[in-house]
Write a structure and sequence with these properties.
Layout: E1 2-7, H1 13-24, E2 27-30, H2 31-40, H3 44-55, H4 61-73, E3 80-83, H5 89-101, E4 108-113, H6 116-124, E5 126-128, E6 135-137, H7 164-186, E7 192-195, H8 200-219
Parallel strand pairs: 1-3, 1-4, 2-3, 4-7
Antiparallel strand pairs: 5-6
Helix pairs in contact: 1-8, 2-3, 4-5, 6-7
Bound molecules: BIS(adenosine)-5'-pentaphosphate.
BIS(adenosine)-5'-pentaphosphate binds near residues 12 and 35.
Length: about 220
């Protein structure tokens, strides 16, 4: 199964992609996580991406497309769930072309819809584990012990781009450059819109109903 999850910053893409990947045995390909790993390792790509990420702007398409194409080529046959990619119409077009060349295609596009005030509240309250990548929220999904990862006891950190000022830039970038990706897909296929303002378990239940319907179709 090949899934694309679209949505604004803080819509819950990472949260739900992890759950989808676990349930269906897919690989979770998050462009943001891959870039943060590259930064942590001090690679040339990580260094090039740094200033864009810190400002809440998009990293140039050529760097992203090469990075994600490599990750997709290495995905297992069970499939993948794309988180944060494609994020411009150009990225979506290049992805479609490269999948078509491999006689492959995206099976389902889900668009998580969330209101701007919810985005701000979620992102400024997000904390994550620098070791295993688990994501929490100080109010909505707190760890059992404040500031400490439930899985490995590591101290949780706040992403440097999760300040209110940068989140506002990320939202603007989203409306200008990423929202048109929804229209790009909608012109050629169904895009499943999901109200993602509610509780994470309720949102996950809606997503899983859509994926179960797709899996039933694929079996027939
Ligand atoms: P990226 O890491 O992709 O950031 P983003 O798209 O801004 O998305 P987030 O990771 O902030 O949010 P999310 O939707 O995953 O929400 P989450 O599940 O964590 O990108 C970072 C940067 O990298 C970009 O700004 C750009 O510079 C660069 N980049 C990445 N991809 C690129 C590309 N393709 N092209 C160019 N540049 C690129 O949830 C957020 C919080 O809310 C968490 O605390 C969570 O616990 C909580 N939460 C989630 N769902 C719920 C719920 N339903 N109810 C209550 N709380 C919830």
């Amino acid at each position: 199964m090949r899934v694309v999850l679209l949505g604004a910053p803080g819509a819950g893409k990472g949260t739900h992609c992890k759950r989808i990947a676990d349930r269906y045995g897919l690989v979770h390909l998050s462009s943001g996580d891959i870039l943060r790993r590259e930064r942590a390792e001090g690679t040339e790509l990580g260094q090039k991406a740094q200033s864009y990420m810190d400002a809440g702007a998009l990293v140039p398409d050529d760097l992203i497309v090469e990075m994600m194409s490599r990750a997709i080529r290495q995905a297992p046959p069970t499939g993948y769930v794309l988180d944060g990619f494609p994020r411009t119409v150009n990225q979506a077009q290049v992805l479609d072309k490269s999948l078509a060349a491999q006689k492959s295609e995206i099976d389902i596009v889900l668009d998580l819809r969330v209101d701007d005030p919810v985005v701000l509240e979620r992102i400024t309250g997000r904390r994550s584990c620098p070791d295993c990548g688990a994501v929490y929220h100080v109010k909505n999904m707190p760890p059992q012990r404040a500031g400490v990862c439930d899985k490995d006891g590591t101290s949780l950190v706040q992403r440097p781009d999760d300040t209110e000022a940068v989140v506002r830039n990320r939202l603007e970038t989203y409306y200008q450059q990423t929202k048109p990706v929804v229209d790009y897909y909608r012109a050629a296929r169904t895009v499943d819109e999901i109200d993602a303002n509610g509780d994470a378990d309720e949102v996950a239940a809606v997503i899983f109903r859509k994926l179960a319907a797709l899996a039933r179709k694929e079996v027939r």
